[in-house]
Amino acid sequence: MANVKNLKKDINFVLGDIIEAVYLFEMSTTGKPTEATNALIDEAIGTFDSLIAKVNAKNVENKKAHFKQINIDLEQAANQLVAKINEL
Description:
Layout: H1 2-28, H2 35-55, H3 63-87
């Protein structure tokens, strides 16, 4: 189950880096959290929770395809969050 372990680490690292980028943006601009940055952090945490729930799902027919789709979902969610950070 090393692949599941690595997938969980990838999800944690990618979304953790996105949250860190939001905090760095806050510190470099206003120094305070704004409604937009709080919404981005909440969205990243929600994405993390949903992806981890998908990884932990037990009743999956084709595990290889399931985990591949989770990886694709992670990439799409990360790209969307980074685009939102760039719009700030």
